[in-house]
Amino acid sequence: MLKDSSAHLDSLRITWLSEPFHLGIPIIDLQHVWLVHIILELEEEIVEAEKNDSDIEVHISFRKALDYVAEHFALEEDLLEHFNYPNFKEHVQGHRKFVEKLTERYYEAKNNQMAALGILQILKKWLFQHILHDDTDYAEFFKASNVDLKSYCNQMLKSGKYPISKEQLLIYQNIVQIDTTTISLHEQSIDTIQEIRNIWKTYNLSTGIPIIDLQHIWLLKMIVELDHSLKLGDGSSETFHKVIAEAIEYTKDHFGVEDKIMRYFRYTDVVQHMNQHKRFIEFIKMRNDEYKLGNPRVGLHLVQDLRNWLLSHIALEDKKIGIAFESRVRELSEFTKKLHQTGEIGISREQKNLYKLVLQSVPDPLD
């Protein structure tokens, strides 16, 4: 939060009360208040940057927005699916389109100022269009259906699938000013598998090629583990060194597999794709050099780089490979199976198990 926290909270309260955002579902309202907080914080940063003629740390704002959508969309979709909301599919499609638009606006911007303004515009549009209309529709459905929302929401929170931070709870209490004893923090635990699953679904990362998806999920595990470590205040060299080592290993294994697939099946954009791989290797090397020089923010930089890679490369470029070869999935499976049998690619039991846990009820990627 910026310097004048009381002014920020006043603005947040005024914005929240200016429209009928309150749905009467505490856990959803808490996350919606958090979205308003993110929007106002970004607005304040833009104003401050213009006043001081300084640059905006737009990467942080983008990451906050992505954290929000991954957590909020996953919880909301769980809730709607559980209570058989009739417009569930359309609601989910709206979520996926929002992530695409947010990502496009960020990566297409020519500078940080334009990126920040683009993100702000998308977030505001979402707040005033989606929440006031689509979310109000499902809130009315729940009321009419007389479902036991309270028990199910408590169950979700206790499961640890959807953690709530102390800061989120404090801001919600301050703005809404109602009893929040139903939102329990002390019983929560971090569910890494669920968090990976939430990001995987929300960012729509599946390529449809099992071996590539397996390796992408393994990368996602690295990101989530490093992110948890940083959020818990453990910026230890041991954690960072482990993730850097895994990232270097990942580049060798994963890029090698993609290269073999693209060349064997004559993918048309192979040169441009491999150039992006080279850039990934370069930023991993750069972060490793920063780590050796003792940069205290290197962990945050690496998390941001890896998250950017998820959206700028995996969700866009790697998906193109899946689309190009969607009619040849069986051939691809046979090809990767042979590569594994001859020892040209290696997949650990841990990677296989994580793949199955995240995607739930999927066959072995090499069967």
Automatic annotation (TrEMBL):
Entry's Gene Ontology molecular function annotations: metal ion binding; oxygen carrier activity
InterPro entries: Haemerythrin_Fe_BS, Hemerythrin, Hemerythrin-like, Hemerythrin-like_sf, Hemerythrin_metal-bd
Keywords annotated in UniProt: Iron, Metal-binding, Oxygen transport, Transport
Entry's transmembrane regions: none
Claim: Nucleotide-binding is one of the keywords in the record: no
PROSITE patterns reported for this sequence: HEMERYTHRINS
Family designation: Belongs to the hemerythrin family.
PANTHER family reported for this sequence: BACTERIOHEMERYTHRIN (PTHR37164:SF1)
Protein's name according to its UniProt entry: Hemerythrin
Annotated organism of origin: Leptospira jelokensis
